[in-house]
Amino acid sequence: MNKLTTSLDFMMANLEVRNHCELFSVICEKAVEKGFILSGFCGDLIEREKIYPTGLETVIPIAIPHVGTNCVQSFFSLATLKDPIEFNNMADPDETLSVKIVFLFGIVDPSEQVHILRKISEIFQKKEILEAISAAEKDMDLMDIMKKELEDLIA
Asked: Looking at the whole model, is its pTM more than 0.85?
């Protein structure tokens, strides 16, 4: 299992965006700069979100957008949002959720997706961890939480 690369650049506390397309753009811009993705990644992410929504109704609603196309190096990003944005619900695509926390990742090897999602799902089943993520005021606070929770998954 390859690790997901991350850095403080990909931990974003209290990000101000109006919608998921704007959020994806912010993260994709950083990922292109780092050479993790090709320019088509963001469009692929937006299209995938339309077909396979990633909003999840948890204690604090979250989204886990991800895609493997146009990804050069697997990476992980976490954003908490100053104001929630709408994502369609994975369980009921006709329903929208006001999402406050977004776990976004790109993967080179699609066979690793299930393992990654399983590991991330362990986080959103823990109310205290989601609350800590949501309450984090600094990017470094998010990084510290993720290093602890995903230590065997991120580099």
From this structure: yes
What is the number of other CB atoms lying within 10 angstroms of the CB of residue 39?
9
17 contact partners, CB below 8 Å, separation of at least 6: 23, 26, 81, 85
Q: What is the 3-state secondary structure (H, E, C) of 22-86?
A: HHHHHHHHHHHHCCCECCCHHHHHHHHHHHCCCEECCCCCEECCEECCCECCCEEEEEEEEEEEE
Please name the residues in contact with 117: beta carbons below 8 A apart, sequence gap of 6 or more.
Answer: 64, 66
* Location of structure tokens 């993967």: 107
Kindly give, in sequence order, each residue whose CB lies less than 8 Å from that of residue 143, ignoring residues fewer than 6 positions away. Answer: 6, 8, 11
User: Cα(78)–Cα(155) distance, rounded to whole angstroms?
Assistant: 14
Which CA distances in Å does 5 have to 9, 101, 102? 11, 19, 17
Please, what are the domains in the chain? 8-149 (3.40.930.10)
CA 104 to chain centre: 2
Q: Is the pLDDT of residue 61 over 90?
A: yes
* pLDDT digit string, tens, across residues 84-115: 999 999 999 999 999 999 999 998 887 787 78
